[in-house]
Amino acid sequence: LTMAMFEDADKFNRGAITYEALKSQLEKHGGLLENLSISIDRWLVPLPQENVVRKKQKKKPLPHQLTAPYIKNNYVYLSFLAVFTLINVGLFISRAIQYRKSNGFVILARACGQCLNFNCAFILVLMLRQCITFLRTRGFTAVLPLDQHIYLHKLTGVAVAAYSLLHTIMHLFNFTTIVVNDPVINANNYTTAEWLFTARPGLFGLVGGCANPTGIALFVILLVMFICSQPFVRRGGSFEVFYWTHLLYIPFWILVIFHGPNFWKWFIVPGTIFLVERTVRLVWM
């Protein structure tokens, strides 16, 4: 229609039309002028408010966890997560500052180790079922996320796995590249294998020399527990695998006590409460 109109107005085939020629065409076709006016009006009228809102929502969707209703309904849980994160950050930074004069491998390994002291003890606190039930029945859910303790246990488990991986890698680099070549620390010329798998050097750990071999054993145990606690194992008809491998927490904590010379200070209170709970449960059974 546009081309036909243009050709009719451009009688001399110049490829352009004058204002008067356009006006003549519009006067000749009155219905065309009316339809053109309606189209222009539609271009200028703003979209309905409902459509604007929908477009905005599609353009910038907020994650559910950042919406006001979610924050209002879960402020206790979110506050707890914030405190948990700040504790980990504070422990990491303070330990890194303490070892700032060491090489980078040692700094990262020690910083992760300090966070592991806290998290390996805290993960047990989250499974003190009798204490959690006691606090819940007395209204402490108003200030503590007691109903989310299982999820927080899983979250702490992920933190333990991540810190352990970095802690192990950094120590491996440190011992294989720095310690074995240090004339003071390795004055007796122990091999890398002796440093990692035996207690012969007599350094590091609650009992001198036990840190590295217990560290290797701990990493293997943690790897098995972490893999077997994944949803595809628990929900895939293999809950027994999850249950029995999770009992490795007993040798895990025993080895951690010998691995880290200061871990027992973090573990003694929750560990004692856990033993009391288990004893009471066995008596009641």
Overview of this structure, please?
The structure is a single chain. The longest helix is centred in the middle third of the chain and has 29 residues, at 149-177. The mean pLDDT is 86. The chain has 15 helices and no strands. The chain has 285 residues and is mainly α. The chain folds into two domains: 2-45, no CATH class; 69-284.
Q: What is the rounded distance between the termini?
A: 91 Å
Structural class: mainly alpha
Give helix % range. over 70%
How would you characterize the largest beta sheet? none
Helix count, DSSP H or I runs of 4 or more residues: 15
Order of helices and strands: HHHHHHHHHHHHHHH
Regions with pLDDT < 50 over 5+ consecutive residues?
none
Rounded mean pLDDT score = 86
| Apparent shape | elongated
Radius of gyration, in angstroms, nearest whole number = 35 Å
**Approximately how much beta-strand content do the residues carry?**
under 5%
Number-wise, the strands total 0
Q: What count of domains describes the coordinates?
A: 2
GO molecular function: superoxide-generating NAD(P)H oxidase activity
Transmembrane segments: 75-93, 105-128, 203-229, 241-260
Domain Ferric oxidoreductase: 124-256
Membrane topology: Multi-pass membrane protein
SSE layout and pairing:
Elements (H helix, E strand, L loop, with lengths): L1 H8 L9 H10 L1 H15 L4 H11 L8 H6 L1 H24 L5 H22 L3 H9 L11 H29 L14 H6 L13 H18 L2 H4 L4 H8 L2 H11 L3 H22 L1
Helix pairs in contact: 1-2, 6-7, 7-9, 7-15, 9-11, 11-14
